[in-house]
């Protein structure tokens, strides 16, 4: 139990990042978006492209968090680490 709590706190304090030439998105291991930065102002001219970039980036960081939780907590939660 103590080991699981330690790992959970470690994950929650980790910053997960998605970055390409256009956007930077960061999230905490608590599944909270902590930063969205537009790196290329040209994308501001095209609403659909910007929406797609944000959609892809946010899903990417959330999937990173889910995978780390499953990998590190799966042995404690019977494979349900993504739920915590």
Description:
It is a single chain. α1 runs antiparallel to α2 (47-77). It is built from two helices and three strands. It is elongated, with a radius of gyration of 15 Å. The protein has 84 residues and is of the alpha+beta class. Helices cover 50% and strands 21% of the residues. It has a three-stranded antiparallel beta sheet with strand order 1-2-3, with helices on one face. The protein has helices at residues 2-12, 47-77; strands spanning 15-19, 23-28, 32-38. The model has no long low-confidence stretch (mean pLDDT 92).
Briefly characterize the structure:
The chain has helices at residues 2-12, 47-77, and strands spanning 15-19, 23-28, 32-38. It is built from two helices and three strands. The chain is elongated.
Give a quick set of tags describing it.
84 residues; three-stranded antiparallel β-sheet; 50% helix; 2 helices; alpha+beta
What is the arithmetic mean of pLDDT?
92
State the share of residues found in helices, binned by percent.
40-55%
**N-to-C order of helices and strands:** HEEEH
N- to C-terminal distance: 14 Å
Any low-confidence stretches, pLDDT <50, length ≥5? Answer: none
Instruction: Give me the number of helical elements.
Output: 2
Largest sheet: 3 strands, antiparallel
Strand numbers in spatial order across the main sheet = 1-2-3
Task: Work out the number of β strands.
Answer: 3
- In one word, what is the shape? elongated
Beta-strand percent range? 15-25%
Radius of gyration computed on alpha carbons: 15 Å
Structural class: alpha+beta
């Amino acid at each position: 139990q103590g080991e699981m709590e330690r790992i959970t706190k470690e994950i929650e304090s980790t910053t997960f990042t998605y970055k390409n030439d256009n956007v930077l998105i960061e999230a905490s291991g608590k599944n909270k978006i902590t930063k969205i930065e537009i790196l290329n102002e040209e994308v501001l001219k095209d609403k659909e492209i910007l929406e797609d970039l944000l959609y892809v980036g946010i899903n990417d960081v959330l999937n990173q968090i889910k995978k780390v939780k499953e990998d590190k907590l799966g042995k404690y939660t019977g494979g349900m680490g993504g739920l915590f």
